[in-house]
Fold this protein.
Amino acid sequence: MRIVVKIGTSTLAHPTGHLNIRRVEQLCKILSDIKNAGHEMILVSSGAIGMGVGKLGLRERPKDIPSKQAAAAVGQCELMYTYDKLFGDYHHIVAQLLITGDDTANDARRLNFTNTLNRLLELGAMPIINENDTVATDEIVIGDNDTLAAIVAKCVHADLLILLSDIDGLYTADPHTHPDAILLRRVTKIDDHIRELAGVSSSSQGTGGMVTKLHAAEICLGCGCDMVIANGDRPENLYDILDGKAVGTTFTEKCL
């Protein structure tokens, strides 16, 4: 399988902004094992701004664009150093790709981006993609790596996109305020009812939410790629997802 995994900031970092070392080590070990099993892996990683905030010792995530760009510049170095070291321990080569919206919206640039991704996979490398937050402005405001991951999955004809977040999946209501909310295990169509279930992210570190995840699901369903929303607190969920077990919420048009 060709698999895209998106890791959110809340999965990578503690609330302080500093790296959650134990979890990231688990993620890299499991992703390496999945790659060893013969799957092609692409990682879309948030966290540059969040890690920059921690490294710079800022008390909170900045709100102005120049400060966000500065935090991203510092944090991206830390993020890729960490990935390179941890994946290198399992003999996997990583490749960094920083892109903006223009790189996927423009036909020629999207083709170049796609060709580079495909060649990296042929060479056995693991591409790690993030928005180029140091030069982008609208992308920082949107902070939408969920959609970016879906676009990547569409470009490379991935079989599966996994969004690792701070929530177990799509519920019938916000589980933070409605303890009786029910987790939807399978969604085959994004209609008005499903859209009404989307809420706002409770994470103070990232800027995505269920709305962006449903948008990503629409992109995936439109190109025949399955998508799963799962909780990044439990990296071992990745094994269960590939084994076909009920984890999080699966978006698919395939029949049971």
Summary: The first strand starts at residue 2 and ends at 7. Residues 139-143, 200-208 have pLDDT under 50 and may be disordered. The chain is about 45% helix and 15% strand.
